[in-house]
Amino acid sequence: MGDRVTLFEVGPRDGLQNEARPVPAADKIRLIDLLSGAGLPKIEAASFVSSRWVPQMADAAVVMAGIRRAPSVLYTALTPNLRGLDDAIASRADEVAVFASASEGFSRANINCTIADSLARYREVADAARAAGLAVRGYVSCITQCPFDGAVEPDAVRRVADALLRLGCYEISLGDTLGRAAPCEIACLLRSLADDLPAERLAGHFHDTSGRALRNVEVALDAGLRTFDASVGGLGGCPYAPGASGNVASEALAARLAELGLETGVDIARLAEAAAFARSLRNRA
Ligand code: HMG
Ligand code: MG
């Protein structure tokens, strides 16, 4: 594997979906434009989910219409079903993501269905996305622990990740949704997945509740992963994962990867500006 790492920015979605008070669309747009200006190659800009479930993302279409599209950036969006996919296509998303869970409890809490039902629904979404010329990314949440079911076995992660690959996802983002995984648990999980899932098809999505996300990135690098999700300013969490905090901060990750001699193509100074703006959006009255 090479020494280039893709930083997949999820702050405008994973970060802002969790803000208690609404963030105006204009501020979301400004944040996304700051991130593209900082050279982030992929930005998860919005989420076309039910506004009953996540009101923070109700303005997804407005946000997608307002951003200044940088030609080198892929703007991606979460799509839980065909309706979300239609809206993402109408909003000119470059890529979409479906999101499943390795645990039944979180699947039920987050998307109101079993894992099996979610995979059946995602097959339709993936087929329709491909027919529209869009790549599909897959998330697997709760890779070591579920807020409702407790410990999660690697086999459960393998089954869901494998199913998502089979339905056409080009990459699987492995989510430590609670942000409490220890580096040895991540290393053990990745060792266990290695025979069935190639490292180049996997990404790390580490929330940072216990302050171990950067170390989890490092063990994932050792296992060959070269794509990591991160949230500018460390924003976020999931509204359906009580107690979870934001993803590893993009600026901390970019700095650490640079120290390790790994290329991201990100402009650290401009990312710091975006991070300052992101932090100003947090818990704003
Ligand atoms: P449901 O209640 O089972 O489905 O929700 P429904 O079909 O009965 O729909 C309920 C209402 O939502 C209806 O409206 C639908 O029309 C509407 P009503 O008739 O009641 O007025 N609706 C929609 N509206 C807009 N866009 C849509 C859409 N679909 C239905 N696409 C559903 C099922 C999946 C829709 C719901 O559970 C949902 O939207 N869940 C999303 C939850 C979410 O976004 N969670 C956060 C993202 S996941 C995450 O953060 C984890 C991740 O970061 C990885 C990690 O950290 O592990 C990715
Ligand atoms: Mg997340």
TrEMBL record:
InterPro entries per UniProt: Aldolase_TIM (IPR013785), HMGL (IPR043594), PYR_CT (IPR000891)
Domain Pyruvate carboxyltransferase, residue spans: 5-272
Lyase found in the keyword field: yes
SUPFAM superfamilies, per the entry: Aldolase
Keywords carried by this UniProt record: Lyase, Metal-binding
GO BP term (any one): L-leucine catabolic process
CDD domains tied to this protein: DRE_TIM_HMGL
MF annotations from Gene Ontology: hydroxymethylglutaryl-CoA lyase activity; metal ion binding
Keyword Nuclease tagged: no
NCBIfam families found in the cross-reference section: PRK05692.1
Membership in a protein family: Belongs to the HMG-CoA lyase family.
PANTHER family: HYDROXYMETHYLGLUTARYL-COA LYASE
Protein's name according to its UniProt entry: Hydroxymethylglutaryl-CoA lyase
Organism: Aureimonas jatrophae
